[in-house]
Write a structure and sequence with these properties.
- It comes from Sphenodon punctatus (Tuatara).
- By secondary structure, the chain is an alpha/beta fold.
- It has one domain: TIM Barrel.
- It is built from 13 helices and nine strands.
- Helix 6 packs parallel to helix 7.
């Protein structure tokens, strides 16, 4: 039963009522995942350049790497499974492998993951089979990458998606209807100056994602409220990162149990309750991200918020 339920979200955008397909995507509630590609990290790979020196030294011990894996994996689902479950925004951190010949780029979170190319192929394959679903790829952290690495990565993005890439436009014009007419499905946000040179790379500033950086769920919810209140009225999307961040102390104390057992399970009910109390719209929530999106019906909860926009609609017309 559960698998059927999750796969029923694979076409949620194309199933939205016409009134919502005409609204800017910035006004809809869209589920996303945090550190989207960390479902597979390679224990045998060197520790990533995103980690502190002390951790790099420790990680020479294989046990430490196994433990790091428990803290590096923030998603259990592959890209395809996340897409089928309804996730449409992906938070991406990428890196070259220092010392490796060539310009290959990998997903990274503490440890190296799959190549970006393999990930893009997996996404593209989903989009081919679901031609009305639209996704946001937010390339927001780059490690050990020079100009050539960026050129390489951008050419791979272009090669993977071709005409599905959405060219930069006024954010308010981005409706599902508009994108369907243009047969475009992919919005790329690129937090590096090169974005200016490519029509299909949107500025990172169009996708603000304020980060609470706390282990305290009450502080997190307060932060989400405050940053939503400060949301720009025009011209950008908005990410509410409903995630708790472990401190080094937390990791040391709960090393063996890992992130999922320590922070996430305990606080998910409160986070989900907050999500259920939100409303999309001009100053409301837009993209909401979470860790381990499969643990609760996270995506379905976020998608369901869009019904509130219809109720408002009816009140106006009646």
């Amino acid at each position: 039963l559960t698998t059927r339920k999750s796969s029923s979200n694979s076409d949620w955008m194309s199933s939205l009522p016409p009134a919502l397909c005409a609204l800017p995507l910035a006004n809809l509630a869209i589920p996303g995942s945090h550190d989207s590609f960390s479902y597979w990290v390679d224990e045998k790979s060197p520790v990533g350049p995103d980690q502190a020196t002390a951790i790099k030294r420790l990680a020479k011990i294989s046990l430490v790497k196994k433990l790091m894996k428990k803290w590096s994996v923030t998603q259990n689902l592959t890209f395809k499974e996340q897409l089928e479950g309804g996730i449409r925004y992906f938070d991406l951190r990428v890196s070259s492998k220092p010392g490796e010949v060539g310009n290959e780029i990998y997903f990274i979170h503490g440890l190296f993951g799959i190549t970006v190319w393999d990930g893009l192929m997996e996404i593209n394959n989903f989009l081919i089979h679901h031609p009305q679903e639209v996704i946001f790829l937010d390339f927001n952290h780059f490690y050990a990458m020079d100009h050539n690495h960026h050129e390489y990565l951008i050419s791979r993005i272009q090669e993977a998606f071709g005409s599905k890439l959405c060219t930069k436009e006024c954010v308010e014009n981005m409706t599902l209807q508009y994108l369907w007419e243009k047969e475009q499905q992919v919005l790329i946000f690129y937090h590096y100056p090169l974005f200016e040179e490519y029509p299909f790379l949107w500025a990172g500033s169009k996708m603000p994602a304020p980060w609470a950086n706390t282990t305290n769920v009450n502080k997190l919810l307060q932060f989400l409220e405050t940053t939503l209140g400060e949301r720009a009225k025009h011209g950008t999307f908005h990410v509410s990162q409903a995630i708790l961040t472990p401190r080094v102390k937390t990791i040391a104390r709960h090393l063996i149990r890992g992130l999922k057992n320590t922070l996430v399970h305990r606080n998910l009910p409160m986070i989900l309750k907050w999500v259920k109390s939100q409303k999309p719209g001009t100053m409301g929530v837009n993209i909401i991200t979470s860790d381990f999106v499969e643990l609760v019906d996270f995506a379905a909860t976020v998608i369901a918020l869009n019904n509130l926009l219809l109720e408002g609609d009816r009140a106006v017309t009646s």
